[in-house]
Amino acid sequence: MINSSFETYFRQHQVSHQWQFMLQALAQVLQGAEDTESLKALFFKVGERMAREIEGDFASVETLADLQDRINVRWSEWHWGWVHFKELEDAIGIEHHAAPLAQAFGEDSLPWTVGLLQGFYQTVFEVLGAGDAMRVETVSHSATPMGIVLRFGSAQV
């Protein structure tokens, strides 16, 4: 369990003060103009773009551990936390820790800003050869300011 004082300190330093006010105002405007699914789709596209920009970093990986290491180099450079991949029975678990989404856009934005990570990881797995039947999805009620749990596998109905 993360000490709440440590979490508060960490989150206060996650997003540059010069951008935090503007990003939270932007989030409020977006939430007033669009529904959650539309915003999630928009952020999915942002995540896709981010992954495409760095696909050379991971396009040739051969193991899940190597993929994790390569992506974590970028997340660290960007101060976007880190990811842990876990092989599950029928999917790949994706645990992304300390993404600055809640701090940048406000905690109320997590239901739609998580789309950025979905789009990012979806694109990563597509670059590596995943088919259309495989999707990155949010694990129900798993998004918190310090951790977002996703799964990559056959689409859940």
Structural key phrases:
single chain; 157 residues; alpha+beta; four-stranded antiparallel β-sheet
Detailed description of the structure:
By secondary structure, the chain is of the alpha+beta class. Helices cover 52% and strands 17% of the residues. The chain has helices at 4-12, 17-33, 36-53, 64-78, 101-105, 110-127, and strands at residues 82-87, 91-97, 134-138, 147-154. It has a four-stranded antiparallel beta sheet. The longest helix is centred in the first third of the chain and has 18 residues, at 36-53. It is globular. 27% of the residues are buried.
Report the total helices. 6
Q: Over the alpha carbons, how many angstroms does the gyration radius reach? A: 15 Å
Mean pLDDT: 87
User: What share of residues are in beta strands?
Assistant: 15-25%
Query: Helix/strand/pairing class, anyone?
Result: alpha+beta
Report how far the terminal alpha carbons are from each other.
32 Å
The largest β sheet comes out as: 4 strands, antiparallel
Q: What is the number of beta strands?
A: 4
Shape: globular
Order of helices and strands: HHHHEEHHEE
